[in-house]
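Table S4 entry, Diaminopimelate decarboxylase.
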Amino acid sequence: MEAFHYRQHRLLAEDVALADIAERFGTPTWVYSKAAIASAFDEFAGAAAGRRVLVCYALKANSNLAIIDLLARRGAGFDIVSGGELERVLAAGGDASRIVFSGVGKSRTEMQRALEIGVRCFNVESESELRRLDEVAGALGRRAPVSLRVNPDVDAGTHPYISTGLRENKFGIAHEEALRVYRLAASLPNLDVLGIDCHIGSQITTIEPFLAALDKVLELVDSLAAAGIALKHLDLGGGLGIRYDDETPPSRAALLQAVFERLDRHPRGREFEVLFEFGRSIVGNAGVLLTRVEYLKTNADRHFAIVDAAMNDLMRPSLYEAWHDVLPVDASAPREAAAWDVVGPVCESGDWLARGRRLAIGEGDLLAIMSAGAYGMAMSSNYNTRPRGAEVLVSGDKAVLVRERERVEDLFAHERRLPDPLAG
Ligand code: LLP
């Protein structure tokens, strides 16, 4: 069963009516389905059964503690990109030894903390970072486990802002530089060279780019072995796409199967533990943004539904022109449909969530912005001093609050009025 579905014209999250959630928690509110998150993760885990695989959840997609907690309990590892995300994993009960630390700009403090708690691996993205990590580890009297993120120069065929594996991107170490940087890594006294890592982009909807990247990685693994550098793991990153509109991404299992088949053709393919860093494909379709229509208005032939969620809540449409389906929470209304631009209250023309959607709506109606579980709340801001919405996790017929709605006073709690010497 789909996590979000209609029963007698009412839109439900599992067995809870979204209208009841709006009543209880207000709007805008993010609603997540526990079953959908669990089954997405379990599909990866099931496809990996019998192999040495660690599916790391990329926290950046949605870092709510309840979601981390539920994935930790199912055996997930975690892919983090900041000291903040690291603390979230620990706060949610996740295991440090299952954390991989990605990102191009790790600070000394972040490195120290990660070494102290004992993360599984640092995915290092440059020579300077490698030297810094060696120095920080040396000062702590520890050895840092590392993998180098190589840039396989593969076109993921996705939006340029979320494509990361091309030569011109800031990410990773160029393929032709990799051997030299690995030699350097192997020569530094406080590093343990464990693996190789790549991530070519996000919302990828075909298997081919993943396999092309894997081929490039395997080529490097062979040259490294010839140079006496033996690796233990391959981290193939994340990036599997989901259906927002009519995309037809491969299933999670099909992607893993294809990767394993390709690995099995390599003479030493079975020797490596395989890591993945999936974000969107675990939580994307498991969440919606529930919002209420405040006003309807028509300007120069365009119909606007002004809702109480905005670009500060869900940035994807304004940032990437991303498409999210919009569904009425009560589909029984006998109104006439028109083409609506669903927009928010923020003072920017770019503040829209959907455009030209045929909807039968009236003021006060509730709408669900679909597939908002990934890169929704996680990318939100307080622009226009808008408190961010609540987050609610549904399981069966239960709905629990997993993040309180912000209060306005929270938003300026860290600010000060003019102190005395500057006043007047
Ligand atoms: N690993 C690394 C190193 C990454 O940079 C990312 C995402 C992931 C894993 C997880 O990728 P996923 O499985 O979620 O595709 N804000 C954009 C997406 C940015 C993705 C950034 N990196 C969006 O809303 O579409």
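The domain at 4-31+285-411 is CATH 2.40.37.10 (Lyase, Ornithine Decarboxylase; Chain A, domain 1).
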